[in-house]
Amino acid sequence: QTVSWNEQGDSTETFFGPDDQPQLIKGKVIKLKGKWDERGNPVSLEHFDEHDRIIRANDGCAKITFAYDNGGNITEQACLDEGGGAVRNTDGWAKAKLISDERGNTIEKRYFGPANQPDLYEERFVKIKLKYNEQNKQTEEAYFDAKDRPVKNKTGYAKAAYNYDTRGKLIQVSVFDEKGQPSGRFNDATGAA
Q1: Phi and psi, residue 139, nearest 5°
Q2: For residue 130, how many other CB atoms are within 10 A of its CB?
């Protein structure tokens, strides 16, 4: 791989195999062009083929853009097509907005479709709220619809709670329905009941 930088601080990465020939990454991508902020965080990443044409990577994005808070945490990420229009990535969203706590943990994720409406393809939820303990281990995730009501995800639960032993090892996962009623419990990270 080679990386070059221009006067504005933008980068171009070209990927090569052991035979010094261009090598594909993320599907058809040979080059990754990036723009960076003053902290060194990527502001945008564009994917190119061997003919220097912008193309979509395996995630469905030709370009990914990022915005950050003062702590350097991502506050927004968007997936764009070859023309710069919003398009869904393979996770089902065109834009995600994130909120982080003072320790840098993501505590809320909101998802939007190409028309900038709350939407997540093939899911009923458009928002996830997350909680963490003092060791920054995730202790809860809860799913919500566009009206901020609890809703089940495709897996069938609206909230999951994670319990850890004193060494920080996950020992139990409990799941709940939209009304907060228990709907399952697993005694360890392997899924054993």
Answers
A1: -110, -15
A2: 18
Q: How wide is the angle at C-alpha 102 spanned by C-alphas 63 and 99, nearest 5°?
A: 40
Residues in the chain: 193
Of 11, 22, 9, nearest to 1 (Cα)?
A: 22
Pairing of strands 127-132, 106-112: antiparallel
Residue 32 CB neighbours (<10 A) = 20
Q: How many angstroms separate the CA atoms of 57 and 47, rounded?
A: 7
Using alpha carbons, select from 4, 52, 9, 12 the residue that is nearest to residue 28: 52
Name residues whose C-beta falls within 8 Å of residue 46's C-beta, 6 or more positions apart in sequence. Answer: 32, 33, 34, 54, 62, 63
Backbone φ and ψ of 191, nearest 5°: 95, 5
The DSSP call for residue 96 is E
Place of tokens 């996950």: 170
Q: Select from 39, 45, 85 the least CA-distant residue to 65.
A: 45
| Nearest-angstrom CA–CA distance, 108 and 32 | 29
pTM, two decimal places: 0.83
pLDDT tens per residue, range 124-172: 899 999 999 999 999 999 999 999 999 999 999 999 999 999 999 999 9
Q: What angle do CA 175, 176, 182 make, to 5 degrees?
A: 95
Say which amino acid occupies 83.
G
CA-nearest of 58, 56, 60 to 27 is 58
